[in-house]
Amino acid sequence: MKILKRNCLVGLPIILALGVWLIWCPFQAWAGFDIRPDGTLSFIDSEGNVQASIVIEFARTPDERSRGLMERQTIGHDEGMLFIYDAPDDRFFWMRDTYVSLGIIFVSEMLQVVYIARDTEPLTETRHWSRGPAQYVVEVAAGFSERHGITPGTRITWRKHTE
After folding, report:
1. Residues 6+ apart with CB under 8 A from 61
2. By C-alpha distance, which of 91, 109, 111 is closest to 154?
3. Which of 59, 67, 61, 101 is nearest to 83 (CA)?
4. Which pLDDT does position 3 carry in this prediction?
5. Judging by DSSP bridges, how do beta strands 155-160 and 113-117 pair with one another?
6. What angle do CA 158, 161, 163 make, to 5 degrees?
7. Pairing with 86, which of 3, 36, 61, 156 sits 20 to 30 Å away (CA)?
8. Rounded to whole angstroms, how far apart are CA atoms 25 and 22?
9. Sign (positive/negative) of CA torsion 123, 125, 126, 132?
């Protein structure tokens, strides 16, 4: 009985520590990033040339899409978030609880940029509208689209990183 009690006193903290470590470790794989590196997205010009590529975090679920980049303190010039919707529709985005200025790139179901809301003002509730149906939205650092020549008609493509 004493051996069992002693083993429980020693084993329980080890099991608890292991459990915390197993939960914590997956998040540490991207702890140095403001963007979880789920994949890579490229912007393609009309001649098929890659204009720019960024590391992206996917926002697929309603909860992920509603949170977006809220509460993020920074975003790198080669990072972004891809919002994926089931069907094209008019899209409205705002900057509530978003601390950095963004470019919001609205993309059609045919994977072509339809509109870009440039240099959005942080921490505001101004609505930025897609100006037509969009099935995808890419949020990037302000000034990104100007630096890389991203305009309506530019196409996007992405790939998911392997786990």
Report:
1. none
2. 111
3. 59
4. 60
5. unpaired
6. 155
7. 36
8. 6
9. positive
CA distance 48 to 13: 57
Q: What is the C-alpha separation between 50 and 27, in angstroms, rounded?
A: 31
The pLDDT tens digits of the residues spanning 34-91 come to 789 999 999 999 999 999 999 999 999 999 999 999 999 999 999 999 999 999 999 9
- Where helices occur in 72-158 by DSSP H, the ranges are 144-148
Q: How far apart are CA 89 and CA 95, in angstroms?
A: 20
List the one residue out of 148, 132, 50, 141 whose CA is nearest residue 101: 141
- Alpha-carbon distance of 89 to 82, in angstroms, equals 16
User: CA-to-CA distance for 128 and 138, rounded, in angstroms?
Assistant: 13
Length of the chain: 163
- Is residue 111 exposed (0-12), middle (13-18) or buried (19+ Cβ within 10 Å)? middle
